[in-house]
Hints:
Layout: E1 5-6, H1 12-21, E2 24-29, H2 43-55, E3 62-63, H3 86-102, E4 107-112, H4 118-129, E5 135-139, H5 140-147, E6 155-156, H6 159-169, E7 191-194, E8 197-200, E9 203-206, E10 220-221, H7 240-261
Parallel strand pairs: 1-3, 2-3, 2-4, 4-5
Antiparallel strand pairs: 6-10, 7-8, 8-9
Helix pairs in contact: 2-6, 2-7, 3-4, 5-7, 6-7
Amino acid sequence: MDKGYLLENLTWPKAKKAFEDTTFVVVPIGSTEQHGPALPVGTDFMIPREIGNRLVKKAKVIVTPTIPFGYAKYHTTFPGTLSLEEDTLRQVLIDICDDLLKYGTTHILFVDGHGGNLTALRQCGIWLRERCIPSAVAVWWQIAPTIDPSWQAIGHADYVEVSAMLGVDESLVDMEAAKLPKNIDLTDKLRTLDPHSTEFEGGVVGVNLLTADITTTGDLMEFGLTAAKDYTIEPSSGTKEMGEKFLEGQADYLAKFIEEFRKVTLPPVKSTGPLAKK
């Protein structure tokens, strides 16, 4: 029997009872963006959605419908990508949270599948903090090594992401097209690390690139994304078994995090800092 609730499946009277039963809400969010020739454009929201579906079986939370759009303008040269502007995404998040607070929500966890959302999520988090609502953001590639230390994200549509999607729906993965990509460097001395950074003489300098500037296929390496040391692991080495372990491990980890995060309380903003009343 589920411990939590999938909001999309509830009538409003049942939703009312759910918000009376728990004040902790999980909001899965991702992106609709190209993922190379092997993975579907829904990859970044399908993974958080699946984690949310499994989380209701393990934690007393309300899981909202998954937000399928994020900030991914740098991917839009590849057909199928649908992106919001960052300001729009920030306002979408705030509007959703504003309603959640009306129903008595006291804690919010965003389960995020796309790095381009992080700025808007942080901005929404500050909005929530000003209202004394603790919020947190869980990103799958930061959690993956806690499930298995050998799992280190190495790129866009890499072996970990391929495995996760095999666990979600193997019919959506084209394993024959899952090949290790090679980034296009800016010059022979400027090594492209990802769309946002380049390496020059041992230092890292930020750049502003489109995904298409460094890949012709959409999938790409993201050097420095994690503590990975082996960037030669083929995407085709991903397995459904690994994906199942990944998805269950994510849900187990977040269920434990939620129980601890429930304990967090925050003082009113005016009661903190040098100008606070003594």
